[in-house]
Amino acid sequence: MADIEFSLGEDPTLLIVDDDEPFLKRLGRAMEKRGFTVELAESVAAGKAVAAERPPAYAVVDLRLEDGNGLEVVETLRETRPDSRIVVLTGYGAIATAVAAVKIGATDYLSKPADADDVTRALLSTTDELPGPPENPMSADRVRWEHIQRVYELCDRNVSETARRLGMHRRTLQRILAKRSPR
């Protein structure tokens, strides 16, 4: 972290919401070492409760949690503290979910595995500079998968409607959605 110089400002409060307990605790400790005052939550319900009662200046929210969608926590944070900087973190990186997260108020979106330096950079970055072109562009399989994810999100996560619009069998779509994204 020596090469990363950022200012936390006057309020270093940070909420981390993730249902992967080892990851949650590890990231919490790492962020405390970087000067944040960390509060941990393992569910959408716990995250929303903290966001409503003690809205933090910063938040890192996992997208898919056991009891629901992390975007609910982002919405609560935006209502209670519009100036908070929020990073949505997920193991299911898809362009459609990134767009949805940013539309409802997330500052940035990171795919797992992301380390504490990546999270800190995303939370505290003040530049609007666009990243350079990718070293390894998406494969054709990945582009197809991203398109399916986008249509799925646009259909409000309705498998039958998505399958109809894509012209594929519902079971085929379910198998595709159950898999991790191709490289």
Automatic annotation (TrEMBL):
Q: Name one GO biological process term.
A: phosphorelay signal transduction system
Q: Where is the secretion signal located?
A: none
According to the UniProt entry, which residues carry 4-aspartylphosphate? D62
Q: Domain Response regulatory spans what residues?
A: 13-127
Which keywords does UniProt give here? Activator, DNA-binding, Phosphoprotein, Transcription, Transcription regulation, Two-component regulatory system
Note the SUPFAM superfamilies from the entry. Answer: CheY-like
> Which Pfam families does this one have?
HTH_8, Response_reg
* The keyword Phosphoprotein belongs to this UniProt entry's keyword annotation: yes
GO molecular function, a single term: sequence-specific DNA binding
Q: Which InterPro entries match?
A: ActR_PrrA_rreg, Bact_response_regulator, CheY-like_superfamily, HTH_Fis, Sig_transdc_resp-reg_receiver
PROSITE patterns in alphabetical order: RESPONSE_REGULATORY (PS50110)
Query: What NCBIfam families does the record point to?
Result: ActR_PrrA_rreg
| Reported function | Member of the two-component regulatory system RegB/RegA. Involved in transactivating anaerobic expression of the photosynthetic apparatus. It is a transcriptional regulator that is responsible for activating expression of the puf, puh, and puc operons in response to a decrease in oxygen tension.
What is the name of this protein?
Photosynthetic apparatus regulatory protein RegA
